[in-house]
Every structure is written in structure tokens, then in C-alpha cells.
Design brief:
Elements (H helix, E strand, L loop, with lengths): L4 E6 L3 H10 L5 E7 L14 E2 L3 H4 L6 E4 L7 H9 L3 E4 L2 H17 L4 E2 L2 H4 L5 H5 L6 E8 L2 H13 L3 H10 L8 H4 L2 H15 L9 E2 L7 H9 L2 E11 L8 E12 L11 E9 L2 E8 L3 H16 L21 E2 L6 E11 L4 H11 L4 E9 L4 E8 L2 E2 H13 L3 E9 L1
Parallel strand pairs: 1-2, 1-4, 2-3, 4-5, 5-6, 8-10, 10-13, 10-18
Antiparallel strand pairs: 7-9, 7-11, 9-10, 11-12, 14-16, 14-17, 14-18, 15-16
Helix pairs in contact: 1-12, 3-4, 4-10, 7-8, 13-14
């Protein structure tokens, strides 16, 4: 067939192979070349023209679209070259976009090409284009979600099987949900990159990821999950960005990633295993949630292929394709520090079992203007240590930290975990 759309792929891992398999259904799309790190590695697909030099993709005059599914930021120079060569980009690289998206989008606009990245945020869930098209009439107040399948799987299994974090991590690694080095997932970095991208498009403001508070799930215990369940909550790793109405400004954002207690009555609480979910709150739509597979060979390949087909539908018909995909804003958000955020808290406290200890905790909370909504002592160990659970009403993070520091300095308590409540 003549006038085939010519594709060059950088990366032939799980997602890259999935993209090749999906695109094989289309006779008018041709994958002319692929760049990989290891030329001798066995793969589930066959590409005749392989190279270990991504610049051969970026500089090939026959290639219309560069599909980048290799990951990491070291690929940036090759993508810059591709953009300067007037090639459209389809990528699943959330870290690269979160760290260097501003520069790449500006460069793409200068060269009249588009960068599409539906697969970078929530795998197979369509979220980027719906925000830019169907939901364009909305002014959003917040976006929040479960954006990492690995951590959601681990927390689900800790709850359902009453296992430790380490036991569930090993299980996730055996099933392929977690990498050999799971740091990017379990410490929250993967979710941080994704919420940065979402905040950028939801609020039309650029985001500095160095100012995003990020806390993973490694401190969560099976005991925390059990107690939270008894109180009517589930513990989830939540990535959220919300607008802070202050001084008549609309560019102040609270963006963060950390575990949260989520009421069982809320839809996010019932998002299990490796499933992802994104919840948007705005006017006039009110609340809308997107749920689906956040990773995997074919879900992610679905989003990549969808972006390719979107470009294909317009590439021969107009000079400026997909104008809604072009980034036109260049202002940066004012991002507040975690110390200045306001939250409700779950405190898992270990304290000396002595008369008046709960009263002392209450007095310390009162000193810093913190109201307690729930407190219970859940028994005493043989060595005389009591487990005390406290739920608070809303207060500033800095006041909560000061209260905890005071009690710990006085050697009255040890806070085993402090988890914010959604």
C-alpha cells in the first residue's frame, strides 16, 4: 500500500513489543526501524531493521513519527534531534515529561510538531485527551488518583492476606508487577511524575517536580491497614493536586504524593490490585472518575497506538495537526510546601502505659490548636507499651509536626506512623 505512515520505535521492551503487535493490524502503518539497547536479546516480535543507536531513528528522513517507549531521561537528546527534524513524537515516558516537558513542548511548538503522551500517565486509561477535549469547558479544583499499580497491588494484598510489606513486595516481583529495584514505584516517584503531568494540563500551569512532596509506602504496616479497616478506611498511595484559593490568585497549587486513609465509602478506596483511577473535580462537571489498567503490555500499547492513529488521521490533511495537543502555557504554578498544607491525621502511637497518657496527648494537641476526633488505646504489651490510635480534625502539617516533636522529646510517645486522611 502506498503512502504508508512510517514509524520508528525507540525501545522494544514489554510495551514496545505490545505496540508492534497492535500496529500489525494496520496495513497503512509501517515500522521501518527500531532502536534497542541489546541487539541480541530475544523478543516476542521481529523487526527487520534494528539498531542500538536511537539517533538513527531521530535522523531518518523516511520516518514520520518517533515512538519512544524506552523510558528514562537519557533518551532526551535523541528526541530533541527528532523534533528538530520535524518528526512527531509519541511517548510513554512520564519521567522525561515531568522533568523536561516544558523544554520539549516549547521545542515541538517551534518546529510545528506534536508530542502525544496518553500512555505516560495511566497506562490504558484515556485521560489526557478527555481533559483537553470533552472536559475543556471545565475549571478544575483538584485531580487525585491511584496512579501506580505496583503500590496499589502491594497494599491490596497486605489488606486481603494480612501480610507484611516485604512479603507482598516479593509476591509482586514474582508476578512481574514490581521491578527488581522497586524504588521508583514504592517510594512514590512514578506517581509523582504522573501527577506533575496531570497538574500541568488540568490547571494549565507548569510544575516544578522538585517542589512536590513525595512519600512512599515502605513504612505502612499490616497493623496500620488492619486498624484503618476497623475505623472504616483503606490505605492507598494517593497522588493529588488541588488549587488553593488564596489572595485572589488561581495559580497556587498543593501537589503531593503520599499514603492516605480513604473512607470505604469513596470510589478510590475500592480500586484494587494493579488498577489505576483518576478523580477530577471541577465545574460544571462536578466529579468524574476514570478507572482501568494503569500498566501492562497491551493496555499501554493501546494508548500509544491511539496517539499514533490520532496523528495519522490528520498528518496528510493539514499543516498544524491536533492543535488541542499543543502546549501554549508557560507560567509556573506557585507550589505550597507540605508544612503549609491542612490535613486530618491518623496517628499510630506507641506510649508508656501509665495513668493520664491519653490526657497528656490531648493537652499537647490542644497546645498546638489540634482537635482530636477519635482516640482509643488498643491494649498493652508485656513490656508495658500501649498502642494508641488518634484521628484528628484538620490542622496545619507544621502544627502536627511540632506537637509530635514535643511529645517525643519528652519521651512520652513514639509515633510509629503518621498518615494523612483524604
Amino acid at each position: 500500500m502506498e503512502n504508508k505512515l512510517k514509524i520508528g520505535i525507540i525501545g522494544l521492551g514489554t510495551v514496545g513489543c505490545g505496540v508492534v503487535k497492535v500496529l500489525s493490524q494496520f496495513n497503512d502503518i509501517e515500522i521501518v526501524k527500531a532502536a534497542v539497547k541489546n541487539l541480541s536479546k530475544k523478543r516476542s516480535v521481529k523487526i527487520d531493521n534494528l539498531t542500538d543507536d536511537p539517533f538513527q531513528i531521530a535522523n531518518d528522513p523516511d520516518i514520520d513519527i518517533v515512538v519512544e517507549v524506552a523510558g528514562g531521561v537519557e533518551i532526551m537528546d535523541a528526541l530533541i534531534a527528532a523534533i528538530k527534524n520535524k518528526k512527531h513524537i509519541v511517548t510513554a515516558n512520564k519521567e522525561l515529561l515531568a522533568r523536561h516537558g516544558a523544554m520539549l513542548f516549547d521545542l515541538a511548538r517551534e518546529n510545528n510538531v506534536v508530542i502525544l503522551y496518553e500512555a505516560a500517565v495511566a497506562g490504558g486509561i484515556p485521560i489526557i485527551f478527555p481533559i483537553k477535549t470533552s472536559l475543556l469547558a471545565n475549571t478544575f479544583n483538584s485531580v487525585a488518583g491511584i496512579l501506580n499499580g505496583t503500590t496499589n497491588y502491594i497494599l491490596t494484598k497486605m489488606e486481603e492476606d494480612n501480610l507484611s510489606y516485604n512479603e507482598c513486595l516479593i509476591k509482586a516481583q514474582k508476578l512481574g508487577y514490581a521491578e527488581t529495584d522497586p524504588t521508583g514505584d514504592v517510594e512514590g516517584y512514578d506517581a509523582m511524575y504522573k501527577i506533575a503531568i496531570l497538574a500541568n494540563i488540568v490547571f494549565n500551569l507548569r510544575v516544578d517536580i522538585s517542589k512536590i512532596y513525595c512519600e512512599g509506602i515502605t513504612k505502612i504496616t499490616a497493623e496500620d491497614i488492619k486498624i484503618a479497616d476497623e475505623l472504616g478506611y483503606k490505605i492507598k498511595l494517593i497522588a493529588q493536586a488541588k488549587r488553593i484559593n488564596k489572595a485572589n490568585r488561581d495559580d497556587i497549587l498543593d501537589i503531593r504524593v503520599h499514603p492516605m486513609l480513604v473512607s470505604k465509602n469513596k470510589p478510590l478506596a475500592n480500586t484494587k490490585d494493579a488498577t489505576n483511577a483518576v478523580l477530577l473535580n471541577g465545574f460544571p462537571v462536578d466529579r468524574v472518575m476514570f478507572v482501568g489498567p494503569g500498566a501492562g503490555e497491551f493496555p499501554t500499547a493501546s494508548s500509544v497506538a491511539g496517539d499514533i492513529l490520532s496523528i495519522k488521521s490528520e498528518i496528510s490533511q493539514r499543516t498544524n495537526i491536533l492543535p488541542m495537543a499543543v502546549c501554549h502555557h508557560n507560567e509556573y504554578a506557585i507550589q505550597i510546601k507540605i508544612e503549609d498544607t491542612i490535613n486530618c491525621y491518623f496517628l499510630h502511637i506507641e506510649a508508656k502505659s501509665e495513668p493520664g497518657i491519653i490526657g497528656k496527648i490531648g493537652c499537647a494537641c490542644a497546645q498546638f490548636g489540634i482537635n482530636i476526633s477519635y482516640v482509643i488505646q488498643k491494649g498493652t504489651t508485656e513490656d508495658g507499651r500501649a498502642t494508641i490510635i488518634v484521628l484528628t480534625e484538620e490542622c496545619f502539617e507544621k502544627d502536627m509536626n511540632a506537637m509530635i516533636e514535643k511529645l517525643e522529646l519528652e519521651n512520652l510517645i513514639k509515633v510509629k506512623n503518621k498518615i494523612r486522611v483524604m
